[in-house]
Amino acid sequence: MALTSDAPVDHPHHRHGWWWKTLVVGFVLWVVTIVVTVFTSNTNLVPTIILLGSFLVPFTVVLFVIERVTGTVSTMQLVTAFFVGGILGVLGASLLESNLRQGAALYLLVGFVEEFVKGVLLVVVGWRVRPKTARQGALLGATVGAGFAAFESAGYAFNAAITSRGIDLVSLLQTEVLRAILSPVGHVLWTAILGAVLFGVAHGRPRFRWTWTVLVTYVVVSLLHGLYDSNSTISTVLAFVLTGTPLSAAQNGTVPMAIAGLATTLYLVGLAIVSAIGVAVLIGVQVHFRNRARRATAAVPVGATGWDDAPPPHALR
């Protein structure tokens, strides 16, 4: 009689590679949907274009996380963090931002509001996650940020599509492509940084620890977020200054064609600089906490045990 084993078996869908396969297949479906929409002039397909274009890259981030996360984080928790965190995130941010007034500090205030909302959701979702390490925090933070980015992008795509002349498919597609390309270095990156520090200061312990490092990180990612969002305005002003063009040359908020190319170039350069800073910060945080955990483990006498002695071995993952 054959003996059966009670050892858990990895589900075949948990092997690496599904994230990029999903990205490729989803992109093909998005293109096919666009072609059919144009060929048939069937506006009923526009919501499909909006959903595919807005959710494809963020959901791919979730699959990337599922393939790499460890500990007590389940796939259902990650999916919940994506959808519930994303919905509550945009709702909370919308309520808090409803009374903000236009001004030079608007983008900075939006950055602080949105990162606060995502940070609270990250704490709620990650409360029972074991172990709490910088890597786990970055992965979970990326998931919450991806959910926020997906629902926010859907809103921007919808607004771009609806015009007084009817549905503007070109504007819709331009909005989706731009936001899809930028989403991994936007909400995903900022919340990943915050999550890495928030979980990293726990040093592998089961509970969160509140330190000045967490507060400083929140301020840093909020400033990066605000700088990222305000880059369009900054690049436009720089284009006027560098070319010596008076601001009065702008008609109805439209940039003159003579400096539009320079403004676009400065905009892309600005996004690249802010994104590079964010990536460098995330890598630096991960390296810092990994080295710190290794030093702490090396300093523990042989036979020492308990949470108060040092992080558990799996905290080094």
Structure write-up:
There is one protein chain. The protein is mainly α and 317 residues long. It contains 10 helices and 2 strands; from the N terminus they run H-H-H-H-H-E-E-H-H-H-H-H. The protein has helices spanning 18-40, 46-66, 75-97, 106-126, 134-161, 169-182, 187-200, 212-229, 231-243, 257-298; strands at 162-163, 166-167. Strand 1 and strand 2 form a beta hairpin.
Give the helix/strand class: mainly alpha
Taking all Cα atoms into account, the compactness measure Rg is 22 Å
Write down the overall mean pLDDT.
83
Order of helices and strands: HHHHHEEHHHHH
Strand order of the largest sheet: 1-2
Could you list some keywords that capture this structure?
single chain; 317 residues; mainly alpha; two-stranded antiparallel ribbon; 10 helices; 68% helix; globular; disordered N terminus; disordered C terminus
Task: Chart the SSEs and their pairings.
Blueprint: H1 18-40, H2 46-66, H3 75-97, H4 106-126, H5 134-161, E1 162-163, E2 166-167, H6 169-182, H7 187-200, H8 212-229, H9 231-243, H10 257-298
Antiparallel strand pairs: 1-2
Helix pairs in contact: 1-2, 2-3, 2-5, 2-6, 3-4, 3-5, 4-5, 4-7, 4-8, 5-6, 5-7, 7-8, 7-10, 8-10, 9-10
